[in-house]
Design brief:
3 strands; 147 residues; 6 helices; mainly alpha
Length: 147
């Protein structure tokens, strides 16, 4: 699929990874708060690593990203690096697309970053999760006002 008619250009790998780093620091803070909310349920003791905690943090992570992606297409890291997630089809990014993007981004990163590096050889400069979710991250000249 070629670029949509607005001639937006795909974001570079460097900018994507820089925004991801910013977002990971913010997400870490969100995880701390989310985990602290579990302390009363565990008698004030530290929550041990277990499947429940891992699943809980995975849902928190998805909520974090999907909220920002469906409300203006920018996480705080993406805003700092002037990036925006867009639907490659007409219309706004949907929750289904955010779920697909999130679930494919995990193996994209865990397989030695191959899903991200794929954009260096892809004709449209898309990652695995861009292609699978029919979304893409574009480089903005300036951040949109408002949201």
């Amino acid at each position: 699929m070629s670029n949509p008619p607005d001639q937006a250009r795909p974001a570079s790998l460097f900018r994507r990874l820089a925004a991801l780093l910013y977002d990971s620091l913010l997400l870490l803070a969100v995880w701390f708060v989310a985990t602290a909310l579990l302390l009363p349920l565990n008698g004030g003791e530290a929550v041990e690593h277990n499947p429940f905690l891992t699943t809980y943090l995975l849902f928190i992570s998805y909520g974090f990203y999907s909220y920002f992606w469906t409300h203006g297409g920018q996480t705080l890291g993406m805003r700092a690096w002037k990036l925006q997630l867009r639907n490659r089809r007409p219309g706004p990014v949907t929750l289904w697309q955010t779920l697909l993007r999130f679930m494919v981004a995990i193996p994209s990163a865990l397989l030695f970053g191959l899903g991200y590096l794929w954009m260096l050889v892809d004709r449209d400069r898309l990652t695995w999760h861009d292609r699978y979710s029919e979304t893409w991250i574009v480089q903005l000249d300036r951040n949109p006002l408002g949201r």
